[in-house]
Amino acid sequence: MFVEIASTLAFGGLAGYSFLKTNGNKPAKSDSQKILKIFNNAGLNKGGETIRIIRKEKIDNGMMYVFQIPLGLGSEDIFNKKSVIEDGLNTRSRETEIHFRDIKNLKSLKWDMTIFKQLKKILTKTKMINKEVEIEYDGMLKVKVFEGPLDEKIPWDKEMLQPGTWKVLIGKKRTELIYHDFDKTKHLIIAGVPGSGKSVVMKLIITSLILSQPDNVTFSLIDLKGGPAFARFKDCKQVENFAIDNKQAVEVLKKVEADMERVYQDLLVAKGFEDISEAGVKGRHFLVIDEAADLAGDKEAVEILTNIVRKGRGSGHYVVYATQYPTVQTVASQIKRNIPARLTYVLDSAIASNAVLDTNGAEDLPETPGRGIYKMAKQAIIQTPFIKNSEIDKQIAPYINIRPRKEDENENEQQLKETNEDRKHSLEFKTL
């Protein structure tokens, strides 16, 4: 028995060595070589010059390749080819690994013309390739190739809050949490097709601000999809105004604008302060609009909103402007110019992506809820934490303040008027 096993292993080892020699003498093309070939095949060259690799560096779960691009070739040309690079790196859907732990199965070999096929089946295993690419440009082109995708779901945790600040966690890169600081960048545009994560991140922002600044934050919430996205917040003590249609929205916009002007006249101009931070005011008011595209055709609403976006930075009136349908009409240029911070999830076209980011990219995002692009001076691909509605209800429960409402629920407009009269609707001068 021993002799039989030993001879099988010996012959198997010899055959395995022969198999590896005949099948492993062709080194696989490296990712950097593949990327260079993809660039050339995609026509990314200029005046006969091609992109040249300068160096490569090991990064967490991948490699970074640094390239020099020829004069006359713009970085936007490269960014627009991101999906082409990913497709090229993943062209071979499977790769082979050697697993000698299965060598015990060599006893079952049949020593005939099929020996090499049998060896391949026993000694190798396949795994799927699913590489992802991130591209940056800072004078040099940096292509980061990751061996696997970003986490598809990140559960929200209260430890993610930064109490006492105006920073809100909006996503996670591979090794870094990404916060939007509303006191540094006052407003935010959010876009994404239905189901992509837009509503989730807006609820996350509202919840985080309530928990981080319960005594200093107030809201005007406008939900032009009929109210379901923000309904759970409407009775929070921090919510001053709540609107669910265009007529109500215009009234809320007028109130916010009037309060903004009051802060300017009674505090900033009167006392010589440049903004509320210099004045030592603690309070901030957030105007959060879901499906702002529905206001695009209302000239009065657009004019008021543009004024709030333009002047609200100094008075502490910050805008979160969200839409499913970003276009040059729904994200007006005068609003866009005053909101440099953008957060977008997957969109249905490059045109929509350009309307938000001023570049392509959002149309190529995977249809993974919460997978988005956050753009400030630079842009980053992130995964937004997921917070359950039940968790939101649990966290905001201490701040719910049920107010008397008119019993006839059909009189929505009168109900809104009475509700808003019971609520204060001005930014208090709470000083440090």
Q: What fold name goes in the CATH topology slot of the largest domain?
A: Rossmann fold
Please state the CA-atom Rg, rounded to the nearest Å.
29 Å
Tell me the number of structural domains: 2
Helix-residue proportion: 25-40%
Structural class: alpha/beta
Average pLDDT across residues?
82
Describe this protein with a few key phrases.
single chain; 432 residues; Rossmann fold; Threonyl-tRNA Synthetase, Chain A, domain 2; disordered N terminus; four-stranded antiparallel sheet; eight-stranded mixed sheet; 18 strands; 2 domains; alpha/beta
Short description:
This protein is of the alpha/beta class and 432 residues long. The protein has 13 helices and 18 strands.
Summarize the structure in words.
The protein has 432 residues and is an alpha/beta fold. It folds into two domains: 145 residues, Threonyl-tRNA Synthetase, Chain A, domain 2, CATH 3.30.980; 265 residues, 3-Layer(aba) Sandwich (Rossmann fold), CATH 3.40.50.300. 34% of the residues lie in helices and 22% in strands. An eight-stranded mixed β-sheet has the order 13-12-14-15-11-16-17-18, with helices on both faces. Strands 3-4-8-7 form a four-stranded antiparallel β-sheet. α2 crosses α4 and α7 runs parallel beside α9. The protein is elongated.
